[in-house]
Design goal:
alpha+beta; about 25% strand
Length: about 150
């Protein structure tokens, strides 16, 4: 993905990696599990994956570390999600263009329509974390193939 990046764009590529979870990440994931804000599959993900960064795919795709998600939750609380906006959600990443990804406690993944999390308007992007990760994979594959960053 980054072989021709600098020649095409005139500057070196940024970070594009999946980082394995360390002890701090795993501890933050356990704390998220205790406060019952994150779906079980996200806790399992965070037990193995520290974070994922694809800075050079479009504006970028980022899945934040569990510690960052936990800190944001402690500082700002849960994001109101769902059809009636009464379910709780956790910000887990962003698209680098100012939009955030929010995992509901039921597992549904949403994307904000604007950069603000105050009274956010949300679009459902995936039924669960697995589908969200598959969409990310397709976006990365599309970007490598033709330079288009995908739909997320």
């Amino acid at each position: 993905m980054t072989d021709e990046f600098e020649r095409r764009h005139g500057f070196p590529p940024g970070a594009n990696e999946v980082r394995l979870a360390d002890h701090a990440d795993q501890a933050a994931a356990r704390t998220l599990a205790q406060v019952s804000i994150a779906p079980a599959d996200l806790i399992t993900f965070y037990d193995s994956i520290g974070d994922a960064t694809w800075a050079d795919v479009g504006n970028g795709y980022f899945i934040d570390p569990a510690g960052d998600a936990l800190l944001r939750f402690k500082e700002y609380g849960a994001v109101d999600v769902g059809a009636d906006m009464k379910a709780a959600g956790l910000v887990i990443g962003s698209n680098g263009g100012g939009l955030s990804y929010v995992a509901s406690s039921s597992g549904v993944i949403y994307r904000t329509q604007t950069a603000s999390l105050d009274e956010p308007e949300l679009d459902q992007v995936a039924d669960d974390l697995r589908q969200f990760l598959e969409l990310l994979e397709r976006s990365l594959t599309r970007f490598v193939a033709n330079g288009e960053p995908g739909c997320l």
